[in-house]
Every structure is written in C-alpha cells, then in structure tokens.
Amino acid sequence: xxxxxxxxxxxxxxxxxxxxxxxxxxxxxxxxxxxxxxxxxxxxxxxxxxxxxxxxxxxxxxxxxxxxxxxxxxxxxxxxxxxxxxxxxxxxxxxxxxxxxxxxxxxxxxxxxxxxxxxxxxxxxxxxxxxxxxxxxxxxxxxxxxxxxxxxxxxxxxxxxxxxxxxxxxxxxxxxxxxxxxxxxxxxxx
Length: 190
Prior knowledge:
The protein has about 190 residues and is α/β, with parallel strands linked by helices. It has helices spanning about 15-30, 75-80, 105, 115-120, 130-140, 145-155, 160-170, 175-190, and strands at about 5-10, 35-40, 50-55, 70-75, 85-95, 125-130.
C-alpha cells in the first residue's frame, strides 16, 4: 500500500476517536508514516465528528481535502452523505446503518432522509454497510460499534488480521479485550 486517506465520521460519543487511534497504530506498526487529525465540532452535544487518517511512505499533512479520501468509515448513515464530497472517484464508503437523528429532526424542523445509503450507492459509489450496533451487541457491548466498523474496514483495506488484533489488545482496557476481539471478527467476517 503506497498511501491511504481515510475519513472516520460519526456523531459525538460513538467511538470515532478510538477507531482513528487504532487505525493509526495499525499503520504505524506496519512501518508506515501516519498523520491523524481530529475535528470535534459539537461532539459533546451529538454533533458531527470527523477524523482524518493518512498513512504512506511519507505523509506531510494530516488534512484530507475534498475528493481525496480513499475510504469513508461512517458510524451513522447520514454522516456518510455529509462527508461524501471528500471521497475520491472510485472510493468506498463503509457505514453503519444506524440512524441518529440530528437536532433539526429532533426538534421537528426536518425529517431524516429515507434510504441514505441506497442513494449514495445509486450515485455510483461503492457502499459496504451493516447494522454495526446489532453486531456489537451480539459481541457483548453496544459500545463496540467502532470495533465492528474497524473489522469491516480492515477486510476492505486488506490490513493484516493479526496486526489489527494486536493493536486492539494493546489499546483497549484489558477487561474489554474479549468483547472487542469478537466485535472485530464479526465486522471482519461479514
């Protein structure tokens, strides 16, 4: 892999920052130069969160411009659409099917759009999706959505399976390793 640009997007509190930390560790452990940049926005109030992960032989900037992301890993369906302009032609969206209503929908000023991921796919974008919340719950914790999505991304990106599990073991609290390994495997083996 010469270089890769990944956007990890979601809503505050979903674990996007841990996912970016793990992704960065996996790339570093494989000998790549890595830059990670986090933008929190209104994350503590359920707002949009984005993390840029760039890896390659030599990476000079942590920022991914519009049309440069190889992959968007989305923790929430509508966030996939929000960040779609950053995906390059031929890129892939890996998304959770979960829907978290944004504030205008909660307040009754808007309606959550129907079939967001289907519309993205209809526009010619490769979309891989799953109900990561159901899979995380099956693994033992609803909080493991991020690890399910990491597993899906690892498979799509062709990342070394053992490197991914080693990064999880080295990063998550010891008491959650078993659940996180199960969650990773459920995403990886979809």
